[in-house]
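Final report, section 2: Outcomes. Of the targets proposed, Four-helix bundle copper-binding protein is the one most frequently requested by collaborating groups, and we therefore present its record in full.
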Amino acid sequence: MSVRKMIGLHPLVDGHVNQPLGDAVHHAMYCSKMALSCADACSAENMDMTQCIRLCLDVSDVCEATARLGLRRTGSNPQILRELLELCARACDECAAECERHDHEHCKLCAQMCRECAADCRHAALSVVEPV
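The predicted structure is given below as tokens.
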């Protein structure tokens, strides 16, 4: 099942999906869950992972909010959506940089997902337009 297909089924979208925004929503949904899982795994490591846990939890929450706002097609709030996409990209960059400092496989996967999400969010922020 595709989130892009679900967006396209919205009566006000009439099949037209902003592809960059659909990609960002897709990645933000997955990134939220990957970061949450990484934070949980970090809490079980035998070393101080406090900062990594904090950034993973922060990025999970920001990605979740970004995905939720990006899914909404009724009404319009382009400035807030654009700013949230940019914030999500920055949060993902910070989390990825922290995760890349660790040699744990879960951190490597989280960092990769965060980098992909950041790129999609930056691209989507450019595609959000004011309503006509």
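The chain has five helices and no strands.
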